[in-house]
Specification:
Helices cover 28% and strands 25% of the residues. It is α/β, with parallel strands linked by helices and 282 residues long. An eight-stranded mixed beta sheet has the order 4-1-7-8-9-10-11-12, sandwiched between helices. The protein has a five-stranded mixed beta sheet with strand order 6-5-2-3-13. The mean pLDDT is 94. It has a single domain, classed as Ribokinase (UDP-N-acetylmuramoyl-L-alanine:D-glutamate ligase), CATH 3.40.1190.20. The termini are far apart.
């Protein structure tokens, strides 16, 4: 079976202590679920643990009818994050990657993944070493998030076709950053700027679009929503990047109005413990 979007990488239980609830999350996981909700033939590959949070995330994936053609369930804790609200902004305080940091993909699994119009992953997913094996065999999308390590970018970005970046946490000239990225000649680079909208680079052209006005409830996962909608639109209309961006902005605004990245949660009265915090505060 050929998929429209195959998302590979992180799945995380986002725990909100004030609510005593975990929400389904993780950039790659969110992208797959939202793409499916938008009508794409979406698949996901990532490592689940065997605890209560893993079961919740795995069952949610099945309920959302996202394809999971290769089961990878490993004994141990699922990835977990602690999230607190500051108004409508969700602030991640700690992250325990659990078992998914052990992502290992064999040749047979890569054969399944590459049978897709677009394969998507991100900097949190340990997927970098597999990109060369898929390059030129499918369209590759990669989310660099807030990362600005140019050595890392220079190593990874030549292997992908579409790159997503989030607004830098330090002072930055966004257009100068895109100008630097232009040397790599990607199909498209998308740089989200929060309330200030988004920049998209197509060749030598830079397009700026405003964010849609919205009374945000929770901004967690809004970037994943934009990515999912952008890629879903592109899977249907391969070269219409302007329409893809419009769909991305519309979907991001919609998901700002729900709690958690996907609006799917489960009660947790027991304390959620971070065993090894790998989150670096910006």
């Amino acid at each position: 079976m050929q998929y429209d979007i195959f998302s590979v990488g992180d799945n995380i239980a986002d725990y909100y202590p004030e609510e005593k609830r975990v929400y389904a999350g993780g950039g790659a996981y969110n992208t797959a679920v939202i793409a499916k909700r938008l009508g794409a033939k979406a698949a996901y590959y990532g490592v689940f643990g065997t605890d209560k949070n893993a079961k919740f995330l795995y069952e949610t994936l099945k309920k959302e009818k996202v394809a999971y053609p290769v089961n990878d369930i490993r004994k141990g804790r699922n990835a977990l994050s602690i999230v607190r609200r500051q108004g409508s902004e969700a602030v991640i305080e700690a992250v325990d990657k659990g078992v998914y940091k052990n992502l290992k993909i064999n040749k047979n699994v890569l054969e399944i993944i590459k049978n897709s119009k677009i394969v998507h992953s991100n900097i949190y997913s340990y997927f970098e070493n597999y990109l060369p094996k898929l390059h030129y065999k499918t369209k590759l999308s990669f989310d660099f998030s807030y990362l600005r390590n140019r050595e890392y970018i220079e190593d990874i970005i030549p292997r992908v076709d579409i790159a997503f970046f989030s607004e830098s946490k330090s002072q930055e000239d966004p257009e100068a950053f895109l100008d630097w990225l232009s040397q790599f000649e990607l199909e498209a680079v998308i740089l989200t700027l929060g309330e200030d909208g988004v920049l998209m680079q197509l060749g030598e052209e830079i397009i700026r679009e405003k964010s849609l006005p919205v009374e945000a409830v929770d901004t967690l996962g809004a970037g994943d929503a934009l990515t999912a909608a952008f890629l879903t639109s592109l899977a249907k209309n391969e070269k219409d990047y302007h329409q893809a961006l419009a769909e991305g902005l519309k979907t991001a605004a919609k998901y700002c109005k729900i709690r958690g990245a996907l609006g799917v949660s489960e009660s947790r009265e027991e304390e959620q413990i971070i065993h090894k915090n790998v989150h670096q505060k910006k």
